[in-house]
């Protein structure tokens, strides 16, 4: 268990950093392509140089294996960095758009402009990636950044602080450690954009604070992501992929399949294959597996333990508060009204519900807050189209889970209760920029139709604007 403690950062220190960042931004240093490129490359160099320490910190906070830490945090961040480094120039280019004839002769262009001073607040579950992936967007867009790491992943917060302090000027990028009090001090300040990843509940607090200054927000929140398995699905692949997606980070993943909606005709064979795959990946006793992570702290551990009362344990259920080990657990006979079906589970418990026809599934999903992700395992294009047409979610996969985060060209974000705005790849650049629309008029001539006196010009106007 991680016993490191954290210290709050004082209001005056925060104000001081922001003042300096405002000054730095106003000097225009972040505007140049070459500056941004250099900073992105520096960030990659910094992470490469300290990769082992980062992976150790992830192990200390969450007992993440080196493989998982690399795949889902460090390697993922490299992919985002590489993509930004390759595409930065084209993202920054002004884009010419169509100009109506009424404005003859003029050219209209969209100039992506950095918002300015950004604040990035991260959660504990992917404490490295969720801090650094938004930072890539901020650097690419030409913003300054203050990062607030999660106090619940203190080892990662500490190494991130060390790297940012050692390699970046605080008037450009600073990392602030601390908990709720520090976060509140930060939210009292006037930022040009706030990028928040965390719970829906705290997302609302962030948005309220931002509203006081009319600050735009990107809110990457959570929720219950349904996972549907229909009667045509490839059961072996479905089981294997669901087990992986649910148990990566011991289920403490914002886009983890939260619960299963399984066609009743295939429940038994699917459950059997899920159990087989849990054993294949983590053995008969996952507590002994070097690849199976732990629950972040006692509070979350106790919350998960209470969910065991909400159904019948079909498999797993073992837990040990001393080691924060919580076994992969399948639950059946779960009421949709029970806490395990009301809260985001955020742990290795998978409730299994059954259905008879897809309309029930659509109704079930649409009666609930819009999820961050939705997964469908099927071989039926009819079912696929039906689910995609008649439900909504931030994103999702057909015949897989979680991996819609991998392609940089897919925007990642929520909708409704699961968030506002999106990022990854170019979307990260756009999240920290605003599109400034500029029309440039010729000085060769000036068509006088728009000027008073209007006399009988209306007829002409109607010819062009009809
Ligand atoms: P959280 O909302 O409790 O905390 C997130 C951040 O907000 C932390 O840095 C914390 O210090 C700060 N914070 C907490 N309470 C605050 C308050 N009252 N006022 C101001 N700041 C406050 O979330 P968490 O427990 O760290 O993370 C888990 C949640 O994050 C889950 O709901 C999960 O789904 C969500 N999440 C979403 C994504 C995504 O990409 N959409 C990714 C990871 C996690």
Walkthrough of the structure:
- The protein has two domains: 234 residues, 3-Layer(aba) Sandwich (Aldehyde Dehydrogenase, Chain A, domain 1), CATH 3.40.605; 188 residues, Aldehyde Dehydrogenase, Chain A, domain 2, CATH 3.40.309.10.
- The chain has 16 helices and 20 strands.
- It is 42% helix and 19% strand.
- With 466 residues, the chain is of the alpha/beta class.
- Nicotinamide-adenine-dinucleotide binds next to α7 and α8.
- The site of nicotinamide-adenine-dinucleotide has 28 residues, from α7 and α8.
What's the topology here?
Blueprint: H1 11-26, H2 33-49, H3 51-62, H4 66-92, E1 95-97, E2 106-114, E3 117-121, H5 129-141, E4 144-148, H6 154-167, E5 173-176, H7 180-188, E6 193-197, H8 200-211, E7 217-220, E8 225-229, H9 235-247, E9 257-263, H10 267-282, H11 298-307, E10 312-315, E11 319-320, E12 325-326, E13 329-332, H12 339-342, E14 349-355, H13 358-366, E15 373-377, H14 381-390, E16 395-398, E17 412-413, E18 419-420, E19 422-423, H15 426-431, E20 433-441, H16 458-464
Helix pairs in contact: 2-4, 2-5, 3-4, 3-6, 4-5, 9-10
The structure holds nicotinamide-adenine-dinucleotide.
Are there runs of 5+ residues with pLDDT below 50, and where?
none
The main sheet comes to: 7 strands, mixed
Q: What CATH architecture of the largest domain would you give?
A: 3-Layer(aba) Sandwich
Range of helix content: 40-55%
Give me the secondary-structure category. Answer: alpha/beta
> Please, what is the average pLDDT?
96
Distance between the termini: 70 Å
CATH superfamily of the largest domain: Aldehyde Dehydrogenase, Chain A, domain 1
CATH topology of the largest domain, which one?
Aldehyde Dehydrogenase, Chain A, domain 1
Count of separate DSSP helical elements: 16
Strand order of the largest sheet: 10-13-14-9-8-15-16
**How many domains in all?**
2
The small-molecule ligands in this entry are: nicotinamide-adenine-dinucleotide
Strand percentage: 15-25%
Beta-strand segment tally: 20
Radius of gyration: 25 Å
> Could you name the CATH class of the largest domain?
Alpha Beta
Coarse morphology: globular
């Amino acid at each position: 268990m991680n016993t490191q403690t954290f210290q709050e950062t004082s209001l005056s220190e925060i104000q001081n950093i922001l003042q300096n960042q405002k000054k730095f931004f106003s000097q225009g240093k972040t505007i140049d392509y070459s500056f941004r490129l250099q900073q992105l490359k520096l960030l990659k160099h910094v992470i490469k140089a300290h990769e082992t320490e980062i992976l150790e910190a992830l192990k200390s906070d969450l007992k993440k294996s080196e493989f998982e830490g690399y795949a889902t945090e460090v390697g993922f961040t490299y992919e985002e960095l590489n993509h930004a480094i390759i595409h930065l120039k084209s993202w920054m280019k002004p884009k010419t758009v169509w100009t109506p004839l009424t404005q003859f002769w003029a050219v209209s262009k969209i100039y992506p402009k950095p918002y300015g001073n950004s604040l990035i607040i991260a959660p504990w579950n992917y404490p490295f990636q969720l801090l650094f992936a938004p930072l890539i967007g901020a650097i690419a867009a030409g913003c300054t950044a203050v990062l607030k790491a999660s106090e619940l992943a203190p080892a990662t917060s500490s190494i991130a602080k060390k790297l940012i302090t050692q390699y970046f000027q605080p008037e450009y990028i600073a990392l602030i450690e601390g908990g709720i009090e520090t976060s509140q001090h930060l939210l009292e300040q006037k930022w040009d954009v706030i990028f928040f990843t965390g719970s829906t509940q705290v997302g609302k607090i962030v948005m309220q604070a931002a509203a006081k200054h009319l600050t735009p927000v990107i809110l990457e929140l959570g929720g219950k992501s349904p996972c549907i398995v229909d009667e045509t699905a490839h059961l072996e692949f479905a089981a294997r992929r669901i087990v992986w997606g649910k148990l990566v980070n011991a289920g403490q993943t914002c886009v983890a399949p939260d619960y299963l909606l399984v066609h009743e005709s295939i429940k038994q064979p699917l459950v059997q294959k899920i159990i087989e795959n849990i054993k294949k990946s983590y053995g008969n006793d996952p507590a002994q597996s070097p690849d199976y992570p732990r629950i972040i702290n006692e509070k979350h551990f106790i919350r998960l333990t209470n969910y065991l009362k909400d159904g019948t344990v079909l498999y797993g259920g073992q837990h040990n508060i001393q080691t924060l080990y919580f076994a992969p657990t399948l639950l059946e006979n779960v009421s949709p009204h029970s806490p395990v079906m009301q809260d985001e589970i955020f742990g290795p418990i998978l409730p299994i519900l059954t259905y008879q026809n897809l309309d029930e599934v659509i109704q079930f999903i649409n009666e609930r807050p819009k999820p961050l992700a939705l997964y469908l395992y099927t071989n039926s294009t009819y079912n696929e189209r039906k689910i995609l047409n008649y439900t909504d979610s931030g994103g999702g996969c057909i015949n897989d889970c979680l991996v819609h985060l991998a392609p940089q060209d897919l925007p990642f974000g929520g909708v409704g209760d699961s968030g506002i705005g999106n990022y990854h790849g170019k979307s990260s650049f756009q999240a920290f920029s605003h599109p400034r629309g500029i029309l440039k008029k010729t000085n060769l001539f000036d068509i006088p139709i728009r000027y008073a006196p209007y006399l009988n010009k209306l007829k002409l106007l109607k010819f062009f604007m009809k």
